[in-house]
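Support case: user asked for a sample of complex input and structure output to validate their parser. Sending the pair below.
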Amino acid sequence: MEGVRERLLRVGEELFALKGFREVSVREITRRVGCNVAAVNYHFGGKRGLYLAVVRDRWLPRAQKFREEFTRRLVSPLTPERVVVALAEAFWLAPVPERERWLHRRLLFQELAQPGEALPLMLQQGLLPLYREVERALAAALKTEVPSERLRLCVFSLLAQILHFGFFRPLLKEFLGRDLPVEEIMEHLQAFSLRGLSGWCAS
Amino acid sequence: MEGVRERLLRVGEELFALKGFREVSVREITRRVGCNVAAVNYHFGGKRGLYLAVVRDRWLPRAQKFREEFTRRLVSPLTPERVVVALAEAFWLAPVPERERWLHRRLLFQELAQPGEALPLMLQQGLLPLYREVERALAAALKTEVPSERLRLCVFSLLAQILHFGFFRPLLKEFLGRDLPVEEIMEHLQAFSLRGLSGWCAS
DNA sequence: GTCTATAGCAGGATAGAC
DNA sequence: GTCTATCCTGCTATAGAC
């Protein structure tokens, strides 16, 4: 049975992710949960406390789960192609409901838009470890010795695309004229990241 | 002489970009401008009206300016490399104060985090025309016939990196251990977008 | 642990003087 | 056009009954 505390965390995350911290009222959360307004203060010491608990108890564990999905999908011998595929799959095909993936992106987005004390937590404990993990895999995949800063920038470019294609999905739809299925996005990501524009260049 | 109306737009944009619509109060804006609270209602019909005016009168024109900067920097004969450089330069080296570039990104970010009636405006009149412009340039640069959907996805990947390196600059600093100057970011963007990871691949 | 009731405050908007 | 004064609404947080 899901207690009031857990329901507050779940509903709180939904609303914070959808509208951002300020835009959500404690009343709205407790009404949906079906409990009293005072419950938030009792369990979390206030609205801000609930928000931080959401990040700690729901967002961070999920971030770690995505990271593990990535690692789990790496198959040796490592190639750049396989690293890219593992990364894309971890984000888009992991056994996590689409709804949760959306929540996850969205909450990060909200925190970036209005940075608070949760941001350092999310960056350092959520994103940075993933970046390092990808860097390690990529270093192993590229046989040549690549300067580590070069490598990290490539990791950044990879993640940039993954996050962007998530965040700007509506714009993509408008730009293309149709809603591209995940499989095709992955295919493009792979092609672009591995060969870049020169894959299409005549010269 | 800058009238009250213009100052409200300028200060309003600063604050909306920094904190988001909800987080800013009319009182705060008018206090900084040095006018009365009622001025917002008089000139714009309310807080929301001021926000929309900011988007229309300041953000959209600036978006168009960036687009023109891009077009202006294209030199024939077009090559993919030159398109990438023109795009990066338009965003990072245009004769616009860094502060304004920051404002511009930030306001888009806020609107994406909490979409309102301004979002369609920003996407359709601000971003989409730029995307189409880049697509056109890229199509001319790539001699071979590239399916237009492929091309658009490449444009998306390009812009993804440009926006991401702007939004996540703090994370990049932490990841690299130093704050990368714009010139070096551009160099990487060019290398990655043109050749992808295979530029570093042994096989 | 969970509720009701309320304190205490801040925000947006408006009416009307000047 | 710009100001003062004020209304009304909605919020968080807390005190205290049960």
